[in-house]
Write a structure and sequence with these properties.
There is one protein chain. By secondary structure, the protein is α/β, with parallel strands linked by helices. The chain is built from 14 helices and 22 strands. It folds into three domains: 205 residues, FAD/NAD(P)-binding domain (3-Layer(bba) Sandwich), CATH 3.50.50.60; 113 residues, FAD/NAD(P)-binding domain; 111 residues, FAD/NAD-linked reductase, C-terminal dimerisation domain (Enolase-like, domain 1, 2-Layer Sandwich), CATH 3.30.390.30. It is 29% helix and 23% strand. Strands 1, 2, 3, 4, 5, 6 and 17 form a seven-stranded mixed β-sheet that branches. Helix 6 links the parallel strand 9 and strand 10. Helix 1 runs parallel beside helix 8, helix 3 runs antiparallel to helix 5 and helix 3 runs parallel beside helix 6. The protein starts with a strand and ends with a helix. The C terminus is likely disordered.
Length: 474
């Protein structure tokens, strides 16, 4: 392998977006170069969505011991957690997921370089002293956790979302700072595994919720399992053999801090100023969200690095868009899917389509339903939750929803599909709902929404036969 290489496409980053881009590029050419600095295996598989869900599942299974006696199952009160064994199990499955990703990179040979790329020009990269000339370049470097420099003095008592799953064990008292998706998921899971958890957050919102009613509901539920100290900035300092965390809302002594302050684009090493375009306050170049092209350059930016939709399915879509357009003489615009974010808390949280905050200045009607007494949720001993669906008051077309519900991941998908298809509340109510299912809670909210819509259909939730169909039946 020489120190200089000419390729059709260079892809910087072997995460979800980069590998998805590669799959599109390889449909056209094998003259590419995949460049990756740091550990391979995607953020999702290594430190994100997959290992976190393993831990959440273990915590959920252990938490079920509280309902076993009522179901006539004896011995649940004696169950115990071996936390090192739990974390070993999580790492075992994590490694399985990572191996699956790495297997897809086998056989690349000298088309895969380990190293950190830096732009010299829009089509020229320096990779640790080696030079790459590429007709097209895709930036897919992902993101990294936000860690205030002063916090690094905590040493081994500081746990980040990138180091969490490397811990042999977790101490008994932990402060989780940041109540975004990861902070909430990990905080609740650790609390359910028996740790003392205090969650701090600068704002009052929980895991992306903007609907005040759903947010208030989740706050009340979470306070049954762990302490919440929100609405004020938290400071940390080493103190008395541990860590003192204090804010205007609360002060607590803990053994360790889990920093969950969000993630920032990994761009420091890229030298994006060499692109010759004005960078924004985050240091990112302007790009078209429907083509992912940077300005009018032969450069594309995809995945978490652009800071737009930091979710795996979105990163995969963006990688495909960038890879496809990198192979075209003229870029193409792609419609994006309906927005969908899910938090694997208990109950599960989801924001679908347009959020309450995005719609609150528009003329909308809201259909709601509680899961406190919902039949299927009661059977599962998970009777908790609130759903709020937003629609157009004239047509009943669905705009979005925020919810906290058992099996909320499935309700969220149904709503996302309906919103993407621009369905109305009537059209969705005409779909089948089996009994008893959690989806009946969704139907209750839709019925509540329909009462507020001006334009209703004749009949009820079954569509009327058209005149041709009636004539044929006669």
């Amino acid at each position: 392998m020489g120190t200089e290489q000419h390729v059709e496409v260079a892809i910087i980053g072997a995460g979800t977006a980069g590998l998805s881009a590669l799959s599109e590029v390889r449909k056209v050419t094998e003259n590419f170069l995949l460049i990756n600095g740091g550990p391979a295996g995607t953020t999702c598989a290594r430190v994100g969505c997959m290992p976190s869900k393993v831990l959440i599942q273990v915590a959920h299974d252990f938490h079920r011991r509280h309902v076993l006696a009522a179901e006539g199952i004896r011995g649940g009160a004696g169950l115990q957690v071996d936390l090192p064994a739990v974390l070993a199990h999580v790492r075992s499955l994590r490694d399985h997921f990572v191996r699956g990703v790495l297997k897809g990179m086998e056989g690349l040979g000298d088309r895969y370089w380990e190293g950190y790329a830096r732009f010299r020009e829009p089509t020229v990269l320096d990779v640790d002293g080696r030079t790459v000339h590429a007709k097209k370049i895709i930036i897919a470097t992902g993101s990294s956790p936000v860690i205030p420099d002063a916090w690094r003095a905590l040493g081994h008592r500081l746990i980040t979302t990138d180091t969490f799953f490397e811990q042999a064990s977790i101490p008994a008292a932990v402060a989780v700072i940041g109540l975004g998706v990861i902070g909430l998921e990990m905080g609740q899971a650790l609390a359910r595994l028996g740790l003392s958890i205090t969650c701090f957050a600068h704002g009052d919102g929980i895991a992306g919720l903007t609907d005040p009613e759903v947010n208030a509901y989740m706050r009340a539920r979470l306070q049954r399992e762990m302490q919440l100290a929100t609405g004020a900035k938290a400071d940390v300092e080493l103190h008395d053999g541990g860590v003192r965390v204090h804010s205007a809302a609360k002060s607590v002594q803990v053994d360790a801090v889990l920093a969950s302050l969000g993630r920032r684009p990994q761009i420091v090493q890229l030298g994006l100023d060499a692109l010759g375009v004005k960078l924004d306050s985050r240091g990112l170049p302007p790009y078209d969200a429907t083509t992912l092209q940077v300005h009018h350059l032969p450069v594309f930016i995809a995945g978490d690095v652009n800071g737009d939709r930091p979710l795996l399915h979105e990163a995969a879509d963006e990688g495909r868009i960038a890879g496809y357009n990198a192979m075209q003489a003229q870029v193409h615009c792609f419609q994006r899917r309906a927005r969908l974010s899910i938090v694997f808390s208990a109950p599960q949280i989801a924001v679908v389509g347009s959020s309450f905050a995005e719609l609150q200045r528009q003329d909308i009607v809201i259909g709601s339903a509680s899961f406190e007494t919902q039949g299927r949720a009661t059977v599962m001993a998970e009777a908790a939750g609130l759903i709020r669906i937003y629609g157009d008051p004239q047509t009943g077309r669905l705009h979005g929803a925020e919810l906290a519900a058992p099996d909320g991941e499935h309700l969220a998908h149904l709503l996302a599909w309906a919103i993407q298809r621009q369905m109305t509340v009537v059209e969705l109510l005409q779909m089948p709902f089996y009994h008893p299912t959690v989806e009946e809670g969704l139907r209750t909210a839709l019925r509540n929404l329909l009462k507020q819509v001006h334009k209703k259909t004749a009949g009820f939730e079954l569509a009327l036969c058209d005149s041709v169909a009636v004539a044929d039946m006669a």
